[in-house]
Each structure stands twice: as C-alpha cells, then as structure tokens.
Amino acid sequence: MIIGVYGYIGAGKTSSCEYLQNKYHFTYLNADKIAKEIMQDPTVLCFLEQTFPGIIIDGVLNRDCLRTIIFTNPVANNKLNNYLWPKVNQQIITIINNNPNQNFLVEAIGLSTLALSFTAKIFITASKENIIARINARDQQPSDQTEQLLKIQETFFKQIKPDYKIITNKSLPELYQKLDKIMEEILGDDE
C-alpha cells in the first residue's frame, strides 16, 4: 500500500506523515529529504554550479541562495525540478521495490511526477494566512517569498486529483482525528 501526501509548505504534511507513520506503522519517505541527499552527489553539485553560478561555495551547496532562486524565479525552479525529480523518483521506486512487504507514506510536493500507483492521495492545505504565519514563525522567511512559493506549488497541485483533502486551520488533535477517519476508510477491515 502506498499513500501519497502532498500540500502547501507549512500546511502540516510532515506532522501528518509523522503521525501516520507512528500510529499505523507505515514507512515514511519524504521526497524533500531524499532530494537533499541527492543534492550532495558530486554530479548533482556540478549541475547546480553550472546552472546557478555561485550556489556552491567550497564544495557545499548554499541552501539559502538556492531557496532564494527557487522562490523568486519560476524558470529556475522548473530547471531544478526537471533535473532533480527523476532522480528522486528513481530513489523512491528503488526503496519501495526493495521492501515489498511494507506500507509506504510518500510525502512529495511533486506527487504527480512520481511513477507510482497510489492507494490514496491526501491533500493537506490551510488558509493562506495560516500558512504564511506558520512559515514566518518556523523559517523566518519573508511573506512575499512564501507567497511566491505558494504560486509555484499551486501549479504542481493542478495536475493531481486528491482522494482526500484536509484543511489544517485548527489544532493538531483535530488534524489527527481527520487523518484517523481517512485511514479507517482506506484500511477498512485491515486495520
């Protein structure tokens, strides 16, 4: 069983996946974390330096610089995604194929780019105001950068039809209740 989880930055995807992982014993694959690991590969670092000059300092990726480029330049964001997502996709497929008896949660903004057959797709969202407040508190990121990223992310989500949608404007316990209800439907008598 593979459940895909996607949604806007700061909407509660990671909190949702960590809860589902712990309560339902799913193996949790976070595409962003996998992408960060892939971006340490020397070949990938070379691509990044050639595509975004000055982004590698002393052989290390400057994540703040990369974040600024991605958040403010949709064309650059697209170049990065076209290069990186096939590698992320392959890594996720390899992990799943090597563990056929496990159930997986795959958290990925680019869920539609993954060559996987999902049992269900859960879209996690919140009001724009809540998202901006959460990101400002968590990342101390300027609101205009967050708004730009939300626009970029929205283009990804147009390609995905969710089986379930959760709006996370309230508390974590309420989020967990909604997740449990969804899992009851997905798992049925298997629970």
UniProtKB/TrEMBL annotation:
The keyword Transferase applies. It is an enzyme of class 2 (transferase). The keyword Manganese does not apply. Keywords: ATP-binding, Kinase, Nucleotide-binding, Transferase. One of its GO terms (cellular component) is cytoplasm. GO terms for molecular function: ATP binding; dephospho-CoA kinase activity. Its EC number is 2.7.1.24. GO terms for biological process: coenzyme A biosynthetic process. Pfam families: CoaE. InterPro entries: Depp_CoAkinase, P-loop_NTPase. Gene3D superfamilies: P-loop containing nucleotide triphosphate hydrolases (3.40.50.300). PROSITE patterns: DPCK. This is Dephospho-CoA kinase.
